[in-house]
């Protein structure tokens, strides 16, 4: 299958993983669209919500270094994918059973843990296809389907809340896309048992570019994550200030996800065509979401949510596309996993801090977010400089 119509088969593999991620994002992003108000309804404060959201992301990212390393060593990518998706998705409908915020917090952390188990393996398998289809396009296309699902899921939640009037019923209905995702993963495994074979070993894939560029990308990613507020805190702000009604908050989240879907696909294609300038522009634009999202004007918070969605889409697509260029094919799982661990650490620290800042000074929160995210740009520029330097030193392949 791999040797005949190779490019078409690679595309089908990327497509079916994208469909699985569509259903996955519909499940957990549908839940995340109401986690802030849901935790608030159970008695959690802004500080608790910021801490829980940040800690869940920290666990969800930090554990990836471990799972990524083991996935590379064992080459059992599908095993990590199966286990991870099951925990990731089934924790969501279980939230319907939570009647206090500590129990809900445990399930939120479990959902992120499942994502940590499967994410490095999924990213590694996708990276094996980039030589044939393009780095920006592969990760942009996959992220576009992710965000399409993340657009659809909150709409389901909004409809359920509108008809039933409760958060728990919304969580229960998300069992449907969860089961559809698990079924799609089984189909993908049946047809593509060894996805690493998509990428033939050569000098470029077996040799890793200078470690300096990789570690600089880690540092820049950490700053981006620290300044990127979790939507749980943003939606809590909407509810507390009575800016957006409860049943409309998931719709606004859907708008952010739709923006991320379009941005990841467009910017991913533009990255392959025009290069690193597109990468910098996307991150510069998204750095200004906080002053809008944490304002008290409906029009401004909508603009802030759109910029937030753009930032989310570019993080998952453009950052991973650039990283796939600087990590050897044999170290993709561990390389992505370690990056995600550092990224998650920044997310945890930043989310906890912004939750505390929200209770004390929203203006300071805005300043911290913008400065942190803008601070990553010169670091990314330096990382790219090392990449270009190393590429010019490589011998020309015959």
Characterise the protein shown here.
- There is one protein chain.
- The chain is mostly helical.
- The protein has one domain: Growth Hormone, Chain: A.
- About 2% of the residues have low confidence.
What's this model, at a glance?
This protein is mainly α and 398 residues long. The chain has one domain (6-192, 208-393): Up-down Bundle (Growth Hormone, Chain: A), CATH 1.20.1250. The chain has helices at residues 6-32, 35-41, 46-62, 64-74, 77-94, 101-127, 130-133, 135-164, 167-173, 175-191, 203-206, 211-227, 231-240, 249-274, 276-286, 289-293, 298-326, 332-360, 362-393.
Number of helices: 19
Overall pLDDT metric:
85
CATH structural fold name: Growth Hormone, Chain: A
Radius of gyration, in angstroms, nearest whole number: 20 Å
Distance between the termini: 27 Å
Low-pLDDT parts are: 201-207
Tally of structural domains: 1
Compressed to H and E, one letter per element, the order equals HHHHHHHHHHHHHHHHHHH
The biggest sheet, with number of strands, parallel, antiparallel or mixed sense and barrel status, is:
none
Coarse structural class: mainly alpha
Q: Say which CATH homologous superfamily is assigned.
A: MFS general substrate transporter like domains
């Amino acid at each position: 299958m791999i040797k005949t119509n190779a490019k078409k088969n690679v595309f089908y593999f990327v497509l079916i993983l994208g469909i699985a991620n569509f259903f996955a994002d519909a499940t957990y992003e549908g839940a995340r669209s109401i986690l802030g108000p849901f935790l608030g309804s159970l008695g959690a404060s802004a500080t608790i919500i910021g801490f829980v959201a940040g800690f869940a992301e920290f666990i969800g990212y930090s554990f990836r270094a471990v799972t990524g390393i083991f996935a590379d060593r064992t080459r059992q990518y599908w095993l990590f994918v199966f286990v991870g998706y099951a925990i990731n998705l089934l924790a969501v409908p279980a939230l319907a059973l939570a009647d206090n915020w500590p129990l809900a917090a445990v399930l939120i952390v479990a959902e992120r843990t499942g994502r940590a188990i499967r994410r490095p393996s999924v990213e590694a398998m996708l990276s094996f296809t980039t030589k044939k289809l393009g780095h920006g396009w592969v990760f942009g296309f996959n992220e576009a389907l992710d965000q399409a699902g993340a657009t659809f899921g909150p709409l389901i939640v909004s409809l359920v809340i509108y008809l039933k009037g409760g958060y728990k019923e919304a969580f229960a209905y998300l069992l449907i896309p969860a089961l559809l995702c698990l079924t799609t993963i089984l189909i993908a495994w049946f047809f593509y048992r060894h996805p690493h074979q998509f990428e033939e070993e050569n000098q470029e894939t077996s040799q890793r570019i200078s470690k300096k560029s990789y570690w600089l990308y880690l540092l820049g990613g950490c700053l981006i994550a620290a300044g990127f507020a979790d939507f749980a805190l943003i939606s809590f702000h909407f509810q507390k200030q009575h800016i957006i009604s409860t049943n409309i908050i998931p719709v606004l989240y859907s708008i952010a996800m739709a923006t991320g879907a379009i941005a990841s696909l467009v910017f991913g294609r533009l990255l392959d065509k025009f290069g690193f300038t597109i990468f910098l522009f996307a991150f510069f634009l998204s750095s200004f979401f906080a002053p809008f999202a944490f304002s008290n004007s409906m029009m401004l918070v909508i603009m802030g949510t759109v910029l937030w969605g753009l930032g989310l889409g570019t993080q998952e697509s453009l950052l991973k596309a650039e990283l796939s260029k600087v990590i050897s094919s044999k170290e993709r799982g561990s390389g992505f996993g370690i990056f995600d661990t550092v990224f998650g650490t920044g997310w945890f620290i930043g989310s906890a801090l912004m939750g505390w800042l929200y209770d004390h000074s929203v203006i300071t929160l805005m300043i911290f977010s913008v400065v942190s995210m803008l601070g990553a740009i010169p670091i990314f520029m330096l990382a790219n400089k090392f990449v270009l330097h190393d590429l010019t030193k490589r011998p020309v392949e015959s």
